[in-house]
């Protein structure tokens, strides 16, 4: 399968149904899923995968698999999804890593690659990351990706009102 893009340490490729067990390492980890307020059920993991396979068909992008170049291990997901931010359609960079790969710079490496792919290949003028107000690790990735806070929105998810900050960065026009 050809990669979407690669970085110094990662190959970024589409998810497939064979990834369900490794997707579960993050999506069914209650600590990694703190911002979503619950660990996913088996059905929710399958729905997550199918939603991304649908995005590939309909949008041409979605969340992708992050594979370590050195050992071929699946370490998490990063990619681009269409989102609504206070009525505005935006392209979001999202990222979720398995916990044993946190604090090694993989998320920012993948997110910077996603930003370059959005700007250079898809010619998207601005990319966003929409982040729950208690998710400081994710905010740090957005800030390191050159983003600034543009506003706040409330997401209603899992029966909870969750304030989210909208971070974004615009493509430089030379
Ligand atoms: C959000 C998430 C991906 C961030 O992971 P992370 O490990 O904090 O971020 P990075 O992979 O970019 O690693 C950055 C850290 O690695 C360190 N680091 C080590 N080697 C590095 C390198 N070669 N390059 C860059 N940073 C490096 C940095 O100093 C930084 O340290 P810190 O954690 O003390 O700040 C992770 O917390 C996660 O998966 N959370 C659950 C899912 C989630 O909430 N996703 C976001 C939804 S909006």
From TrEMBL:
InterPro entries (UniProt xref): Acyl_CoA_acyltransferase, GNAT_dom, N-acetyltransferase
UniProt cross-references to PANTHER family, sorted A to Z: GNAT FAMILY, PUTATIVE (AFU_ORTHOLOGUE AFUA_3G00765)-RELATED-RELATED, N-ACETYLTRANSFERASE DOMAIN-CONTAINING PROTEIN
> Could you cite one Gene Ontology molecular function of this protein?
acyltransferase activity, transferring groups other than amino-acyl groups
Name of this chain's protein = N-acetyltransferase domain-containing protein
State the PROSITE patterns in the record. Answer: GNAT
**Residue ranges of domain N-acetyltransferase in the record:** 10-172
């Amino acid at each position: 399968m050809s990669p979407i893009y690669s970085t110094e340490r990662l190959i970024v490729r589409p998810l497939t149904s064979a990834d369900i067990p490794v997707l579960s390492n993050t999506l069914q980890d209650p600590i990694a899923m703190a911002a979503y307020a619950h660990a996913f059920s088996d059905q929710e993991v399958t729905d997550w995968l199918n939603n991304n396979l649908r995005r590939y068909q309909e949008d041409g992008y979605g969340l992708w698999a992050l594979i370590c170049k050195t050992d071929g291990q699946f370490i998490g997901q990063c990619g681009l999804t269409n989102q609504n931010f206070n009525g505005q359609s935006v392209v979001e960079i999202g990222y979720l890593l398995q916990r044993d790969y946190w604090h090694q710079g993989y998320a920012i490496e993948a997110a910077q690659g996603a930003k370059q792919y959005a700007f250079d290949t898809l010619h998207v003028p601005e990319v966003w990351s929409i982040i729950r107000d208690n998710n400081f690790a994710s905010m740090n990735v957005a800030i390191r990706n050159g983003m600034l806070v543009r506003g706040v929105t409330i997401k209603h998810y899992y029966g909870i009102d969750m304030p989210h900050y909208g971070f974004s960065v615009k493509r430089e026009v030379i």
